[in-house]
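Lab notebook, bench 4. The sequencing result for the construct came back, and we need a structural model before the next group meeting so we can plan mutations. Quick request posted to the team channel:

Model the 3D structure of this chain.
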Amino acid sequence: MNKKEARLIFKKITNINVKSIEEIYSGFSNQNFIINDAYILRILRPNRDETLLIKNEIENYKAIENLKISEKLVYLDENNGIKITKFIHQTHYYSSPLKIEEIKSVAKNIKKLHKLKTNISHKYDYLYKLNCYKNRIPSSLYLNKEYEDSVISKMNQITKNKPLVMSHNDLVKGNILFSKNKTYFIDWEYGSLNYEYFDLASFISENNLNNKEIDIFLNEYYKAKLNGTIKNRISIFIKALDILFYYWACYYYFLRKDSIYKEIANEKKYRITSSLHS
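Done. Here's the predicted structure in token form:
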């Protein structure tokens, strides 16, 4: 979508004149525009992840609104996914390498989110998503079945009788913003009830934390409760996420042919192969 089309959509929805518009960092599934230095307009790309439901995203924003850890939702159309949020000024993505205070701030936000009492009912269905992606790619790309089954079995054992918590489920760099005194998690399309280990594994895995950064992060989240058992559980979840997002990347590469998806798939497969031989 070009700027002219985005202008027309925003004006039609809000009846606000567009004085300025700029396309900014866009996720894999979206185009995003800053409007009047005050709003973010999100337009969904074609071939969107079919496991996502807009009505769940709307529920997510309502559930987390009082936590003040996200952008403020102005408009979200359940039919076409067009979303308008308030633009958060004077923020930046995390530093490279990550700063200790940024790592700790993310941990605090996750803990605040996981403590939230909510009435949402939609759950993150790992196997449904995995099979949805996997069944749409050539079987020649399938991973080692024994390894895959073993990781999933261990994950299921870990989560047996464990409570579900409100989770973001997509803590990649582009979904985390820092201001002088606050940290924000944006884009809640993957949000749902899930096990606490998923968000922790997501932040560690998707942002390639080293061992020192992992220790800082988990110590901030768990404090004195952190032990070897918890670390082992999170390592299993990291492996499970690598499997899931390997298939996700393969699925999107066949849908869109963008090289970035092939790069992600190769990165995940390298980590999986390394685990196989470790």
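The radius of gyration is 19 Å.
Will bring this to the meeting.
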